[in-house]
Structures are given as structure tokens and as C-alpha cells.
């Protein structure tokens, strides 16, 4: 047997503590190359693919799809012995492994840099996704199924939770380390170097992970099961690899029902409601819950409200959308709210600040990193546009559209999720007039933008039908006094009511 190495779930940045394995992209017996995606993992911020730091043959998958795994826990074992294909050798490093070829992880790349992620540099090999197989290695529970002990060492597995664990990839990386972005994942060179050179250490048996394994089914099948009140965990899939199919769900829904029973969806809903449901808190939901609790019980919130006639803004929106520089760009009411906020923040810079509890200082930020709260299938995320104040209206429109589309696709980069200084939440898209938003941690203000409605309004001494919206500004009262918060909100309202006042700012 060759040399076995285990790949541990790494901290991909922003203090990740665990992740859910959504699917394996390889199977036991597959030959993998450096840089080849091994699995897809859902973190608190996005779904990302983890590349292999080793070339060799997969000998064991330590967790089933749907399992939540702690950072530092081994998730896969790869035989990197002489039988496995390896990159073109160069001078052997201290760890004893061959130097990767150009274009692979750790190998040379254009410009004298080092390739550290999938797709960096020239593609020397082709990584293919293989269909999920029926047999997946799982952690053994009985003595008869105990695997043979792996030869020493089982090292070079970055993401370790021990004392030699590589440093977390914080938002302020070391000046000598240049992180490389890939599909919402930022991994610094120090993590790859650790994967190749970490000292040999005895293997540690992997635990079964936290949380139960999620049944294998495609999203449309899951939705059908939810509509019919069928618990997928109780079904045995008839598809390839144990995947639950539509026929499995419909058969389970129709089986116990009497001949004269009404439609399955109508009959199953009360039963499901009576039984109740317990949903594990993980991923984006877990991160959001922790952030909101920390914010609500740390910063003293104050919320002020303002009703604004935005008829002129809506007419300006139509004229702006017809201009050639805005062709192909979504010109939404949110764009004008964002621009108004940015102009008002220039007049009142204290609003764009944060509270440093350790230093007992107020940090007034030099640029506005504008966060936009976005509802996604995985929960609420708040990506931000860096230095939004420097952008023209057309550039801001493109940045907002790209930010929300990427967030809803679950591919937001960790760097785009951190460093926000002030946030807008657009509750109007749900037909809601207003609310009392909770501050994003580390920020001092958040503006809620409500629905734009036609309402009776006194205009030029007469009651007329006008387009009206409501604004709600929540702010940290440790930083922003009532006067400052009121002036800031009034300026935003004035800019939306009469966009021409922007010339006076």
C-alpha cells in the first residue's frame, strides 16, 4: 500500500467552524489530480467546491452527503503512493512529496506567482464530475468493520484543528500572502503550503459528524415531498445510488390514503402540521442568528420613520432608464435610495462609523462599503459594494445588480460579505411598508426602504394621488444622537422627494 494522506475540512475564511457536505464529486477508487474538485460544501455564506491538494487514488470517503462536519475533521483519504499519477517532478521539498507541475497547486504560474486554486494557470489535466455511485465509504462503527491502520505518516492535511493548524484567513491577510479567489472561496498560500509540508502525525479516527445525513433527492423531488407532507428520511430511494425519485414520493403519499381520500396535498398538510418539524440550525441561518442576537443585545437601537412623496424620483427613473449608458442595466427605485444614502453619508460622515469596544473609540470609516440585504434560498446575506461613493449612477446600478444576483445564486465571495459600513434592506419588494431593522454587526446604521404606493397626498394645496414610500432608519445610539439620525434621514428623504436637491450637496 502507498502513502495515505487525509484531507481535512479547511477554514476557508471568515472564521468558519463547520460546513455541510452537499455532494461528493469523486468516489472510492477514483484517481484524482491536484486541483481536482473533491466535494461541494455549504458554509455559512455560500456553497463552494474544495480542490484536492494531493494527486492519487481515493481510498475512503469519511462522511455521507448531508453531514455537517467540523473544521479540522478529515473528510477523505487519498493514497498518494507511487501508483498514482503525479505532476511533473522537480526538486523534492522537505515533506518528501514531488513538486507540482506548472499550473497545478503549488506549481509555477504566470508572473512568477504560485498557483493555489482550481483553474489557476494553464490547465494541464481535465477534471470531470463523476455521477454519484451507490457505494460510499462511511465511518465504521463496529469492530468487524474497522479499517486497517494507515501507515505513517498521514500528514499534510491542512485544516487541522490542532496546535499546528494553519492561521485563519482573516479579512486583513498578511502582506506577504496574496489570497486567490475562486467561486466564492478564498484560500491563502499558507494553507496550500501547509497541506504539502506539514510534519507527519498519526491519523485520528474521524467522528460521525454532527447532525443526521440528509436523504438524497433532487430539489424538485424535495419540493414535491414537502407539498405532499412526505418525510424523505423515512423513504428508501429506488434511483441510482439510493436517490429518492418522484415515484418514491408519490407512492409514499398515496400508499396509506383511503380510496375516498381527497387530494394528497390537502390531506397531508394537517397531519404534517400536527406532527410538527424540527429544523437543524446551520449554515447561513446559524450565522445570521448569531449576528442578530449579538447586534440586538449589544448596540442600543433607535428607529425613526419618514413618509416621502417619491413621484418625482419615479419619473426621473423612467428618463434615466431610457439613456444609452443604462442600456442592459436594471434601473430600480433601490438604485436611487442607495445614491441618496451615499450623498447623505458624505454630509454626515459619523453615520458611516462603528464602535470599537476594546479601544473605546468610534471608528469613522473613510469610504462607504454599502451593504444590500438579500434574501436567498439559504437565508439572509448582506454582501456589500466596496467604496460605493466613488461609483457613478450607472456603475452603481451594475454593481447592485451583480451583487444581488451572485448572492441569490449562493456564490458570493467571503470578501464581499465582510467590511460593510452601512446597509439598506429593501422590504418594499415584498409589499411591506416599513419595519424596524436590526443593525448589521459592526455598523451604526441601517435603512429600510418600503413599498412605493399610490396614495392621497397634499400637493400644492390640493389632495392628489401621488407615489409615496416609507423609510425607517435604525441606528446605534452610542454613536448617533437623535439630531444626527434625524438630519441624515431627512436628507435622504429630501433627495428622494426632489432629486434635483442633489446639486446642493
How does this structure look, described?
The protein is an alpha+beta fold and 505 residues long. It is 23% helix and 22% strand. The chain has helices spanning 189-197, 219-228, 246-254, 264-275, 283-296, 311-321, 333-347, 393-408, 414-417, 482-497, and strands at residues 4-8, 18-24, 31-32, 37-42, 47-51, 56-61, 68-70, 74-79, 108-109, 113-114, 180-182, 185-187, 301-309, 353-356, 361-364, 370-372, 374-376, 379-381, 384-385, 422-426, 445-449, 453-459, 462-476. The strands form seven sheets. Strands 13, 16, 19, 20, 21, 22 and 23 form a seven-stranded mixed sheet that branches. A hairpin with a 4-residue loop joins strand 14 and strand 15.
SSE blueprint:
Blueprint: E1 4-8, E2 18-24, E3 31-32, E4 37-42, E5 47-51, E6 56-61, E7 68-70, E8 74-79, E9 108-109, E10 113-114, E11 180-182, E12 185-187, H1 189-197, H2 219-228, H3 246-254, H4 264-275, H5 283-296, E13 301-309, H6 311-321, H7 333-347, E14 353-356, E15 361-364, E16 370-372, E17 374-376, E18 379-381, E19 384-385, H8 393-408, H9 414-417, E20 422-426, E21 445-449, E22 453-459, E23 462-476, H10 482-497
Parallel strand pairs: 16-20, 20-21
Antiparallel strand pairs: 1-8, 2-4, 2-7, 3-6, 4-5, 6-8, 9-10, 11-12, 13-23, 14-15, 16-19, 17-18, 21-23, 22-23
Amino acid at each position: 500500500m502507498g502513502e495515505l494522506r487525509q484531507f481535512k475540512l479547511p477554514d476557508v475564511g471568515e472564521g468558519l467552524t463547520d460546513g455541510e457536505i452537499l455532494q461528493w464529486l469523486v468516489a472510492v477508487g477514483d484517481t484524482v489530480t491536484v486541483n481536482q474538485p473533491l466535494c461541494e460544501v455549504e458554509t455559512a455564506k455560500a456553497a463552494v467546491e474544495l480542490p484536492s491538494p494531493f494527486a492519487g487514488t481515493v481510498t475512503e470517503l469519511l462522511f455521507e452527503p448531508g453531514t455537517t462536519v467540523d473544521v479540522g475533521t478529515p473528510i477523505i483519504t487519498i493514497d498518494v503512493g507511487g501508483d498514482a499519477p503525479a505532476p511533473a517532478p522537480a526538486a523534492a521539498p522537505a515533506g518528501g512529496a514531488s513538486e507540482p507541475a506548472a499550473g497545478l497547486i503549488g506549481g509555477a504560474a504566470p508572473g512568477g506567482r504560485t498557483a493555489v486554486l482550481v483553474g489557476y494557470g494553464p490547465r494541464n489535466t481535465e477534471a470531470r464530475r463523476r455521477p454519484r455511485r451507490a457505494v460510499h465509504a462511511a465511518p465504521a462503527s463496529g469492530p468487524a468493520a474497522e479499517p486497517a491502520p494507515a501507515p505513517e505518516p498521514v500528514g499534510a492535511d491542512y485544516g487541522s484543528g490542532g496546535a499546528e493548524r494553519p492561521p485563519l484567513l482573516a479579512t486583513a491577510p498578511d502582506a506577504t500572502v496574496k489570497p486567490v479567489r475562486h467561486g466564492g472561496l478564498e484560500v491563502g498560500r499558507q494553507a496550500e503550503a501547509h497541506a504539502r509540508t506539514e510534519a507527519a502525525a498519526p491519523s485520528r479516527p474521524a467522528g460521525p459528524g454532527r447532525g443526521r445525513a440528509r436523504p438524497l433527492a433532487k430539489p424538485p423531488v424535495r419540493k414535491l415531498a414537502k407539498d405532499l407532507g412526505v418525510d424523505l428520511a423515512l423513504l428508501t430511494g429506488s434511483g441510482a445510488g439510493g436517490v429518492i425519485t418522484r415515484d418514491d414520493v408519490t407512492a409514499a403519499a398515496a400508499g396509506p390514503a383511503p380510496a375516498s381520500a381527497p387530494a394528497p396535498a390537502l390531506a397531508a398538510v394537517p397531519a404534517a402540521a400536527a406532527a410538527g418539524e424540527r429544523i437543524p440550525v446551520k449554515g447561513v441561518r446559524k450565522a445570521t442568528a448569531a449576528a442578530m442576537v449579538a447586534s440586538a443585545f449589544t448596540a442600543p437601537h433607535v428607529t425613526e420613520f419618514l413618509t416621502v412623496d417619491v413621484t418625482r424620483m419615479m419619473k426621473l427613473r423612467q428618463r434615466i432608464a431610457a439613456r444609452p449608458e443604462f442600456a442592459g442595466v436594471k434601473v430600480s427605485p433601490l438604485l436611487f435610495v442607495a445614491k441618496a444614502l451615499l450623498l447623505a453619508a458624505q454630509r454626515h460622515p459619523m453615520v458611516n462609523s462603528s464602535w470599537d469596544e476594546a479601544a473605546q473609540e468610534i471608528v469613522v470609516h473613510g469610504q462607504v462599503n454599502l451593504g444590500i440585504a438579500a434574501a436567498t434560498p439559504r437565508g439572509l446575506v448582506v454582501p456589500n459594494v466596496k467604496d460605493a461613493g466613488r461609483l457613478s449612477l450607472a456603475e452603481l446600478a451594475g454593481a447592485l445588480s451583480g451583487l444581488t444576483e451572485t448572492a441569490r445564486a449562493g456564490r458570493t465571495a467571503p470578501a464581499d460579505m465582510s467590511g460593510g459600513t452601512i446597509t439598506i434592506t429593501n422590504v418594499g419588494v415584498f409589499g411591506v411598508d416599513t419595519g424596524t431593522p436590526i443593525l448589521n454587526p459592526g455598523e451604526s446604521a441601517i435603512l429600510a426602504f418600503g413599498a412605493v404606493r399610490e396614495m392621497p397626498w397634499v400637493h400644492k394645496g390640493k389632495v392628489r394621488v401621488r407615489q409615496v414610500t416609507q423609510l425607517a432608519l435604525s441606528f446605534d445610539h452610542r454613536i448617533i444622537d437623535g439630531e444626527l439620525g434625524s438630519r441624515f434621514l431627512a436628507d435622504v428623504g429630501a433627495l428622494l422627494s426632489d432629486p434635483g436637491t442633489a446639486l446642493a450637496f
